[in-house]
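Running co-folding for iron/sulfur cluster.
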Amino acid sequence: MTQSISINRIHYPIHSLGFGARVGVWFQGCQIQCPGCISRDTWEPGTNAIQLDELTQTLLPWTAAADGLTISGGEPFDQPDAVAALMKWWRTKNGGDVLLFSGYSAELLWDRYPEIVAQLDVLISEPYDAKQPQTQPLRGSDNQRMHLLTPIAAQRYANLDVAPTLDLCFDDDTVWIAGIPKPNAMAEIRRRLAAMGFAAGTSDQLLDGVRG
Ligand code: SF4
């Protein structure tokens, strides 16, 4: 497999971005750049590039136990060949569902990448809109749409009624949060941590040199 892929981070297990305990892969680079995105550290394209073989070697030990794969970003479809290659490999190792978050419209994705979309179980499409309410599971704003494309997706997600969850992840000396926070949740987390003497910030604040 000679496929380069720009990755922001990976983690297992992730419980906040799909059914069960999942492998999470966050792609690096996003041309969409929605106002209010809390993942601004994922926008810069072309950084953290590795070979897919290297990525899959890291993911391999998690494939036996994982309930599925969540692909997020950044914008995965800014690297469509890498999405296709990663899914092709994953399908040989795990029978769970593959869920992908994209900021592009479903119509655009079906038009430009029908063979890749057809390999997904769950597609969550449309850009984040900070002006919209947030009442739907697994969506940052209510304009975003969940598409259940396969029987396993319907079985696992049709009646999904999950309380909003965030994962607190520890990677070496870094602590970070995965999931879809409610509006103002990050401000509240920063406020509580500050009250305990800890500084924290969302990636846009850190990129702007602001600490909470
Ligand atoms: S598509 Fe996702 S990563 Fe890109 S700007 Fe929008 S919310 Fe952020």
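Result summary
The CA atoms of residues 11 and 24 lie 5 Å apart.
The two ends are 42 Å apart (CA to CA).
Job closed.
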